[in-house]
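Q: Start with the shorter request: fold the first protein.
A: Done. Sequence, then structure:
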Amino acid sequence: MKTYIKNYFKVYEGLSTPAWMLALVMLVNRSGAMVVPFLGVYMVKHLGFTLENAGVLLSCFGIGSVVGSSLGGWLTDKFGHFKVQMFSLTGIVPLFLLLPKLTTMPTLAAGILALSMVSDILRPANSVSLAYYSKPENVVRSFTLNRMALNLGFSIGPALGGFLAAISYDLLFYGNAFAATLAAIIFFVYFRNREGNTKEKTSTEEMAIAYKSPYKDMPFLVFTFLSILFAICFFQLLSTLPLYYREVYHLSEKNIGVILAYSGVVVFSLEMLIVHIAERRTTAANAIIVGVVCCGLAFASLLITHGIWLLYVSMFILCVSEMLAMPFMATVTLQRSNAKNRGAYMGLNSLSLSAGLIFAPYLGTKIAANYGFNVLWTGTGLLMLLTGVGFYFLMKRMRLKRDS
């Protein structure tokens, strides 16, 4: 234990203060992320929608996320990462306050779409900001620190959200609005006049670099497609998995919140150390492949037997998947970009995750409603196995191209 603690704190050495502050902003913002994991349960239990209708509305969240991620990358390259992040953090506050007033399918769809769009404009800007404020040798660890903060917030948010939902679902939305306001204040106060480790203005050498759109980078487009497949399966975590807990295991909102909080604690406790070890002992390609296969294994394991303990084992494997796949997907994206197109590349990387938010709830709820959860988990396991194979051959090609 003493060795673990020593190694755990060692991996944080050398990270810049702005990287820590960005992580704090994400921690505060995500600690208020109580709404998303409970949206499906909220619509089915509180508003009386069918499982499939809830899936359609949850897909609106993904559509808005795709639009926001794409728009966020373009806005970041045009206006800078500070302005875009500030707009997102302040813009979602009134939307959270409005959402509980929307109770019909058309109005709720529009509200969810707008909320997710404004919220996910933040992601590519935040990624560019991390690269801007981090030394080159610390970029991967800065991304991991940021993700760790997100996951710690994700452990706090659902746990608190489960208790608030038991009182009133409206409190979920108001809690989100409060957390976003606090995050915006912290971000503005610290970063409004902050300079990074590299000059924002491009140097003569950078100006000579020709702009290359990520949409013309064919290997990266294939990489993005495979990332979308991973996201479709992984984000069952936010859509069908809570419904599975509710429908099959008959868990209360509090108990669902505890399991989701457990996932955040696992990632918070282990991600920095696991990524640090993976950086030193393997390649980004291998880490991504193992992470993708673990995602399939996590859902397929739900077929083994029936028991609450299995839910925790499955969630732990899913956490390992997240810790290995997502940080190194961001790393590969960063390596493919340059100073002129970094926002566009990171936007496309965010878009791949956002696209998963469209198809995950729609396909997941449709398959579960018509064929049952066991068919969904079987299909998820098989798809992730094939996706892992796809990443294996693609990353070999991308590595050969880079080395040539």
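Q: Next, the second protein, separately.
A: Sequence, then structure:
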Amino acid sequence: MSASPKPDPSMIGGVAKVPLARLPDPEAVFLTRAERFDFLAGHYANLAPYLRFLAAICRAQAELARTLPPPAPPAAERVELARAAHMPPLDRREMRAALAQAMDRLSALLEPIEMPQPARAALSALRAAGPADRDWVMANLLSDTIPEDSVAPHLFAAAALQVVAALAASVLPEDKLVPIRTGTCPACGGRPVASLVTESIGAEGARYCSCATCQTLWNEVRVKCTRCGSTKGITYRSVETEEATVKAECCRECGQWVKILYQNKNPTLEVVADDVASLGLDLMMRETEWKRGGFNPFLTGY
């Protein structure tokens, strides 16, 4: 384990003005993620079965994104009202009907894949669930909540929600989005999985958060907590060395930590897949006073 008593030196200095957000290409996002999970499965023997399972889910997500009818863009008036009020233009509550349909279609796509028996039972239970139970699952997901005693069915439903939300985000006018507040997706209001330091979105060394729900990337300044917005008491921890490409960004103001991935050092990093594969960092951070602040339905329960 290594710990930085002061801000990461690579983060010092400003960056040029960069785009606020990058909206997802849903099919491409999930296919890229599946490929990364498959690659990581070949390098992390202890996690390999789970990583391959998630790769199969991501391929099903890509197929679902390809076959679901594209959503209609929101009305221009609604976008302008959201912009003026500094609110996200997507209303998660309005995703319920599309989510119910997507859950059924994704369940059918997942039926043939190999999975552990408990996961198979959870998938069957979700397919057979009555309206009240489904509403409970959907309400939890739409508020970024997964109960610890019901992780497996929520994982499958979350995979469906990611597709629905990504499709909805993909038709937004990118140039009309505005910052909401630190750590909040400007498209759907979701929480970040983690943040990425990248060289591929308009400026060298820019930092983008990745929405756990709609897959939108949005710019956040560096050396700032992506949970509370504080710039005080930010430190970095890693399992390996100071040059690690995945670190925990820790905030003493709110007591939370969120992963930061250095895609500028390793362009193949994928935020969701590498969040799961860096489970060792989560296990290390459990022994500290900080609480995990990133949200990843595929990592809940570990």
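Q: Describe the second briefly.
A: Residues 1-15 have pLDDT under 50 and may be disordered. DSSP finds nine helices and nine strands in the chain.
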